[in-house]
Amino acid sequence: MDKMIQGRYLNQGEDLSEVLKIREEIFGAGSDEKDPEAVNLLVSLLDDSGDQGTRTGCGRLRMDIENFRFYIDYLGILEPFRRKGLGEFALRALVDKVNQCGADRVFMERDLIRTEEAENFFKKMFFVPWPEDERFLTAEITSFHTCCH
Fold first, then answer.
1. Domain limits at 102?
2. How many degrees, rounded to 5, is the angle at CA 101 between CA 97 and CA 102?
3. Above 60 in pLDDT, residue 124?
4. How far apart are CA 102 and CA 97, in angstroms?
5. Total tally of structural domains belonging to the chain
6. 108 close to 72: Cβ distance less than 8 angstroms
7. Chain center to CA of 12
8. d(CA 11, CA 131)
């Protein structure tokens, strides 16, 4: 039985319970004041049975309207599903949203990257230190259109 990766965007006012369960398990963090203004992503593995699939990960995209900057946070995949391309899928799905808004780069707070594995993942995905503010990593949107894995 083949599995297909599905990403579902959850917008303002939608039920975040599945995302929050995964966020709690991975990060030990639940809902916060930024959720109502963010786009959340729920990542699932589907099989051909047509059911809702297995929830595997999540991510969140926040926008700073004043500075027209987009921030990714709480991007994570549950342990049994890691190293299968799901993290890259989730990151690309969130970056695609940024691209649709016309921004040329995306940001990530450095202190949210807590493991060497996560740090290596973001380096592989073209994130580099932001020279204007060392608290952030950034990647140009065009980087995601040119890489293939």
1. 4-146
2. 120
3. yes
4. 9
5. 1
6. yes
7. 17
8. 31
Looking up tokens 């959720």 gives 35
Contact 59, 8 (CB under 8 A): no
Q: Is the pLDDT of residue 76 over 80?
A: yes
Cβ neighbours for 107, distance < 8 A, ≥ 6 positions apart:
69, 70, 71, 72, 130, 136, 137, 138
Mean per-residue pLDDT of the chain: 89
- Residue 105, burial from CB neighbour count under 10 angstroms (0-12, 13-18, 19+): middle
Q: Where are the beta strands (DSSP E) in the chain?
A: 4-10, 39-46, 54-64, 69-77, 105-109, 128-129, 136-140
Instruction: Kindly report the CATH number assigned to the domain that includes residue 60.
Output: 3.40.630.30
Which residue, 37, 38, 7, 42, is CA-closest to 21? 42
Neighbouring CB atoms inside 10 A of 41's CB total: 24
* Per-residue DSSP letter, 84: S
pTM above 0.90, yes or no: no
Q: Averaged over 43-62, what is the pLDDT?
A: 86
